[in-house]
Write a structure and sequence with these properties.
By secondary structure, the protein is α/β, with parallel strands linked by helices. The protein has 15 helices and 15 strands. Helices cover 42% and strands 15% of the residues.
């Protein structure tokens, strides 16, 4: 086991106590604790409704489906993100169209977004039609990567100009905000994750946030096979008859055991974010002083970065490497050497257009999305979690410094 994992959840006895309550109650399926967890997450983010699901992937699939995405349609999403973003689009029967990102923020490049709309689509009867595949452009699925909101106001402006819909992949961004507006409150449906690598966790799990009560009601029905009455509600009333099912839905329900864990976790969220931000500032200072070969992450003015992950970039010019490919090889050797001595690291995430399914189906090449490709090869995630001390961080940076020096000879 690594002495310094890339991340680890922060638990106390509170999780055990609340989960034990669920076990002792005999009600472990979706119930009152999930409902309370939904309310507390929505309240924290300043949103009216939360709809818990089994994962952020199922949250995205449900949100996209209910928002009208389906076969014969395109949805634009960033090329540098976890594969679940594009997979959720595929799950609806639609086609993902990728857009490059900005290297400095790891988020969607809105200028590239406009170029794609203008060059790849033509207006026909008030709809944007793909010049190649004939699909209708439904909308945009921007990602708030690593805990930093994308330029969502510009995304919203573009969507309004072209008559497009927006569903936000905020898997990493619980608690992130622009000025005082939290993710989830930018006027769109958003989806968050409670995977163990996120700021708070329910083991697996996700949630959809929306200010539209009717939309939330429909999503709650569809996550339960299309049931018009929840199991919790039936248990409190006459539960001997099964409810009506007017739509073919899914089983995307979070359990009350997970909901109990989530209730303990949401109470810790602000503290977790505060400690991670302090550690991120320490890394920024150490990198500036000791690691000129690294480019630390950027927090634009007015943005609040939660640092779900601390992701930096190798500066291959400072290392003396000529190509992205050789830089990636250098990065991989560096990360393996760190792994061997107990410091876990990761690439930030991947360039989806270079993953097998998407490469084989759509014929992508690296140059299609050069910034995503560069970030795939050159990004480095450093350990970051509650309990990581300044002394730990100093050791990690000192070790990276020493390892790079040895590699450079």
């Amino acid at each position: 086991m690594n002495k310094y994992p890339v991340t680890k959840p922060y638990f106390t006895d509170e999780e055990i106590e609340l989960m034990t309550e669920s076990l002792n109650s005999g009600w472990v399926a979706q119930g009152s604790k999930v409902a309370e967890f939904e309310r507390q997450v929505a309240h924290h983010e300043g949103v009216a409704e939360g709809v818990a699901t089994t994962s952020c992937t199922t949250a995205l699939h449900l949100a996209l489906s209910v928002s009208g995405l389906g076969g014969g349609m395109d949805a634009i999403a960033p090329a540098f993100t976890f594969v679940a973003t594009e997979n959720a689009i595929i799950m609806t029967g639609a086609t993902p169209v990728m857009c490059d990102i900005r290297r400095d923020f790891f988020n969607i490049d809105t200028e590239c977004l406009i170029r794609i709309i203008e060059s790849d689509y033509v207006q026909v009867d008030g709809k944007l039609i793909n010049r190649i595949n004939g699909n209708t452009l439904w909308g945009i699925v921007p990602v708030h990567e690593f805990g930093l909101c994308c330029d969502i106001y510009e995304v919203n402006r573009i969507a309004k100009e072209y008559g497009l819909k927006v569903v936000e992949d905020a898997a990493c961004a619980l608690g992130a905000r622009i000025k005082e507006v939290h993710q989830g409150a930018f006027g769109n449906v958003s989806c968050i994750s409670f995977h163990p690598r996120k700021s708070i966790t329910t083991g697996e799990g996700g949630m959809i946030l929306t200010d539209d009560p009717s939309l939330a009601k429909r999503m709650r029905e569809l996550r339960t096979h299309g049931s018009t009455v929840s199991a919790d509600a039936r248990d409190k009333g006459k539960g001997f008859l099964l409810p009506e099912f007017n739509e073919a839905g899914y089983n995307y329900r979070m359990t009350d055991i997970q909901g109990a864990m989530g209730l303990a976790q949401i109470r810790k969220l602000d503290r977790i974010i505060d400690e991670k931000r302090k550690s991120a500032n320490i890394y920024n200072d150490l990198i500036r002083k000791q690691l000129p070969e690294f480019i630390s992450p950027t927090e634009p003015e007015g943005y609040f970065h939660t640092y779900q992950s601390y992701v930096c970039m190798l500066d291959i010019d400072r290392i003396g490497i000529d190509s992205i490919e050789d830089g990636g090889k250098f990065r991989n050797v560096l990360l393996q050497k760190l792994e061997d001595i107990g410091i876990a690291t990761r690439q930030g995430t991947h360039a989806v257009h270079m993953l097998g399914y998407y490469r084989n189906r759509f014929g992508y090449v690296p140059e299609d999305y050069p910034n995503a490709y560069a970030c795939d090869h050159l990004s480095v995630t450093l350990p970051l979690y509650v309990g990581l001390t300044q002394e730990d961080q100093e050791y990690i940076i000192k070790t990276i410094r020493k390892t790079i020096d040895e590699m450079k000879g």
